[in-house]
Write a structure and sequence with these properties.
Length: 456
């Protein structure tokens, strides 16, 4: 990791757009570099947690780059617990890049992805769960994902993990004391130790159960609308997204490619894919669309197998379902407004739900969303109604901890000496420490923070 003063553009910048651009400096020389390029009129004081008004100017030529504000946050009262300076300029890619270049010419180093947050972690301002929550918050795709990230940032994952690790350390100390001073201490209460270890493993298991929910909130749910031509797939997408995302005509084969739309259902980001109608065709372009439709369905988390209420479930749908099983599938009976009574369907047992819609008149979309939420909350897509949700790295470490505790219980049951108990108990404590960052390698840190955006 670099140890000098780092600099990066801290705002998303679109060419020729953006009202404000921020360049952030952190390190021992942050204020000195700012003094070289920022000129303040009058007698403004360069004190911590003040906002200064002035001009960004080239230190040698004196050419004015921009009129700007400068924020000073001296250590340890800053994001990184180092001296931090932010230059708030007008937006636009040219201005912020010019300011960034001036900072580099004055001695700053361009920050690596996530290096500001890495320094915050290494300087003890946040733990690793909070650092990862910051990344989740920046990349949140829905309000629910943002709220879960905020919970992590507030320590709602760090606290239970820290308590579990502390309990493990207490047990380890109690067992190790018997190794060295067994004759001077009362006998170890085996039932109490076993009960505590069992409770620890169970609590870890409850946290591990949030991993799938975390994946849903971070990555979202990929839903493919599949079916024959002219069953109303594009109308369903348009009604659901409340936009004209897909072209709708009475002609079979209108949709030639996969059309995407981003929605939020029950707090979960949903990527909806309207696919080309599945049929045999001699049209080369449509053949490509059909192939992409099959691929999209295979990659989906959930398939909306759409049928025409006037035609019902046919051998074609049965063949389609056979190709996508065991992907979770909802049968959408569309155009229900065009029939007097709903059709009788002889469906395979693996179908998760049946929803009746009339997409052309915006009927049944609420029932479709309710069915999706029911599948998620019912466990078929493994969601959990709690305010924390761990990621894959955290889940892997917690599973190792849980497995190690199970081995301790097996060792106790086999009546092995105390020395054997401590081997796996130490492994469990070490794995819990990897979650919060109390025990973590440099390679793990590099992998985590390399996924951050530059400037964060």
């Amino acid at each position: 990791m670099q140890t000098g003063t780092i600099v990066a553009i801290a705002t998303a910048v679109v060419p020729q757009q953006g009202s404000v651009g921020i360049v952030r400096l952190s390190g021992l020389d942050a204020v000195e570099i700012a003094r070289q390029i920022f000129r303040t009129p009058g007698t403004q004081q360069w004190d911590s947690h003040r906002i200064l008004y002035g001009y960004v100017r080239h230190p040698e030529t004196g050419v004015t780059i921009d009129e700007a504000l400068l924020l000073i946050m001296l250590a340890p009262r800053s994001y990184t617990r180092e001296d931090v300076v932010e230059i708030h300029s007008h937006g636009g890619i040219i201005l912020v890049q010019q300011i960034l270049q001036l900072c580099v010419e004055c001695g700053a180093q361009v920050a690596e992805p996530g290096e500001f947050t890495l320094r915050a972690f290494l300087n003890g301002r946040i733990d690793l769960t909070q650092a990862e929550s910051i990344s989740d918050l920046v990349g949140a795709l829905s309000p629910a994902a943002a709220q879960t990230a905020i919970a992590g940032l507030q320590g709602k994952l760090r606290q239970p993990i820290g308590q579990l690790r502390s309990q493990g350390l207490d047990l380890l100390a109690e067992i190790e004391a018997r190794i060295d001073f067994e004759e001077d201490l009362p006998p170890l209460d085996l039932d109490d130790v076993t009960a505590k270890l069992t409770a620890l493993a169970a609590e870890i298991g409850q946290i591990v159960a949030t991993a799938d929910r975390g994946e849903l909130l971070r990555s979202g749910l990929k839903v493919a609308i599949l079916g024959q031509p002219n069953v109303g797939k594009s109308s369903l997408l348009n009604a659901w997204s409340r936009s004209d995302r897909a072209i709708v005509t009475p002609l079979p084969g209108t949709t030639r490619d996969v059309v995407e739309s981003q929605l939020v259902v029950g707090g979960i980001p949903v990527q909806v894919l309207d696919t080309a109608g599945i049929r045999d065709t001699s049209d080369v372009v449509e053949q490509i669309g059909v192939a992409r439709s099959r691929a999209a369905a295979q990659a989906a988390d959930l398939v909306l197998l759409t049928i025409d209420a006037q035609i019902g479930w046919t051998e074609v749908e049965a063949a389609l379902y056979a190709q996508i099983a065991p992907i979770t599938t909802i049968v959408v009976v569309n155009k229900i407004d065009l029939v007097a009574t709903p059709p009788q369907l002889d469906l395979p047992s693996g179908i998760s739900a049946v929803v009746e819609t009339a997409a052309a008149i915006d009927l049944g979309i609420d029932r479709l969303e309710a069915a999706i939420i029911a599948i998620v909350t019912g466990g078929k897509l493994h969601a959990a109604n709690i305010d924390i949700a761990i990621n894959h790295r955290q889940a892997a470490a917690l599973i190792r901890a849980q497995t190690a505790l199970d081995r301790v219980l097996t060792t106790i049951d086999s009546q092995f000496p105390f020395d054997f108990w401590t081997i796996d108990l130490r492994e469990a404590i070490r794995a819990l420490g990897e979650v919060t960052g109390e025990e973590v390698t440099e390679s793990v840190l590099d992998r985590i923070f390399s996924r951050f955006c530059i400037g964060k």
